[in-house]
């Protein structure tokens, strides 16, 4: 008699959690609020309201690799990213902000938010160095936890998004 | 008192250095662990090192291990200042020889409190 591989066992071990099973919007917002107050300024509040799509968007993100694999992505308009960088640098902010200052400061905010999101997920996980540029694509809309907030009236979104496409569904 | 601040983010180096200078420290900065070791090799020996975890070239954990393997640097106090906040990572850093662990985001008061616990507040700041 020959055993038939039905794929049952493989599918079972391939099962991976979706971010919506692991973290909710309220937790992401709370992490972001804490990061903003500590890094950007004591009076800097994120208002949980969606705004219009940012003009000239720019993103910063870190990748998490572990039981859940994906990215924590901050997206806002370029001018807002510059303002955020100035706020972060405070009196150390140069008169003329260079692109590398924005990459450094906006990336560090993603690093801090991402590191604390990672701590709320099952581990152990690795955390990448921050990157700044065009946001990585959302591979699986079901593996996404996103908040939209306003900072100084400007839209900022924070996405915790899986890096892997959806698993094929059983027939 | 002297402090070496090691972080790949210039913004974060400025923030941490600013806090320490406000407490009376003389500071130097490095962009990764290897640069930090170069500062120490050059003879500028601080009482305190604040070091990030995730950095290019040489990360914070490798830096801590390198410092702890040199008997001449044993008296240095090392404080990890990082967004790595998993319990296993904290234990790993302390086991490698870090004395304290501060999770980003932090406040100036949090740094000051840790330094007070370590007995590393410059005299003028502890008044």
Structure commentary:
Chain A is an alpha+beta fold. Chain A has a single domain, classed as Chemotaxis protein chec (3-Layer(aba) Sandwich), CATH 3.40.1550. In chain A, 35% of the residues lie in helices and 23% in strands. In chain A, strand 5 and strand 6 form a beta hairpin. In chain A, 35% of the residues are buried. The N terminus of chain A is likely disordered. Chain B is of the alpha/beta class. Chain B has one domain: Rossmann fold. Chain B has 6 helices and 5 strands. In chain B, strands 2-1-3-4-5 form a 5-stranded parallel β-sheet, with helices on both faces. In chain B, helix 2 runs parallel beside helix 3. The interface between A and B is medium-sized, with 29 and 23 residues.
Provide a compact summary of the structure.
The complex is a heterodimer of chains A (171) and B (127). Chain A is of the alpha+beta class and 171 residues long. Chain A has helices at 8-14, 19-22, 25-40, 78-89, 99-119; strands spanning 57-65, 70-77, 126-127, 131-133, 144-151, 154-162.
Structural class of chain B: alpha/beta
Major sheet description of chain B: 5 strands, parallel
What fold name stands as the CATH topology of chain B?
Rossmann fold
CATH superfamily of chain B: Response regulator
What's the CATH architecture of chain B? 3-Layer(aba) Sandwich
According to CATH, what is the class of chain B?
Answer: Alpha Beta
Q: Under CATH, the topology of chain A is which?
A: Chemotaxis protein chec
Radius of gyration of chain A: 18 Å
Write the layout of secondary structure elements.
The complex is a heterodimer of chains A (171) and B (127).
Chain A (H helix, E strand, L loop, with lengths): L7 H7 L4 H4 L2 H16 L16 E9 L4 E8 H12 L9 H21 L6 E2 L3 E3 L10 E8 L2 E9 L9
Antiparallel strand pairs in A: 1-2, 1-3, 1-4, 2-6, 5-6
Chain B lengths: L1 E5 L3 H13 L3 E5 L2 H9 L6 E4 L8 H9 L8 E6 L4 H10 L3 E4 L4 H11 L4 H4 L1
Helix pairs in contact in B: 2-3
């Amino acid at each position: 008699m020959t055993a038939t591989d039905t794929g049952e066992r493989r599918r079972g071990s391939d099962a991976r959690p979706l971010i919506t099973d692991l973290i909710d919007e309220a937790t992401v917002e709370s992490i972001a609020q804490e990061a903003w107050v500590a890094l950007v300024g004591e009076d800097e509040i994120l208002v949980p309201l969606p705004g219009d799509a940012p003009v000239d968007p720019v993103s910063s993100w870190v990748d998490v690799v572990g039981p859940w694999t994906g990215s924590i992505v901050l997206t806002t308009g370029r001018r807002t990213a510059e303002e955020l960088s100035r706020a972060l640098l405070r009196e150390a902010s140069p008169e003329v902000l260079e692109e590398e200052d924005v990459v450094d400061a906006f990336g560090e905010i993603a690093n801090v938010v991402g590191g604390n999101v990672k701590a709320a997920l099952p581990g152990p996980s690795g955390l990448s160095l921050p990157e700044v540029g065009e946001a990585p694509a959302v591979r699986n809309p079901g593996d996404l936890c996103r908040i939209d907030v306003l900072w100084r009236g400007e839209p900022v979104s924070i996405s915790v998004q899986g890096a892997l496409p959806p698993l094929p569904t059983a027939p | 008192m002297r402090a070496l601040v090691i972080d790949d983010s210039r913004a974060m180096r400025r923030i941490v250095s600013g806090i320490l200078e406000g407490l009376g420290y003389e500071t130097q900065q490095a962009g990764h662990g290897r640069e930090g070791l170069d500062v120490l090799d050059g003879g500028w020996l601080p009482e305190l090192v604040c070091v990030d975890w995730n950095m290019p070239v040489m990360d914070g954990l490798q830096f801590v291990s390198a410092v702890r393997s040199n008997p001449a640097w044993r008296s240095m106090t090392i404080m990890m200042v990082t967004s790595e906040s998993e319990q296993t990572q904290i234990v790993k850093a302390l086991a490698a020889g870090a004395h304290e662990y501060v999770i980003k985001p932090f406040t100036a008061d949090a740094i000051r409190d840790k330094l007070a616990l370590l007995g590393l507040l410059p005299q003028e700041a502890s008044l």
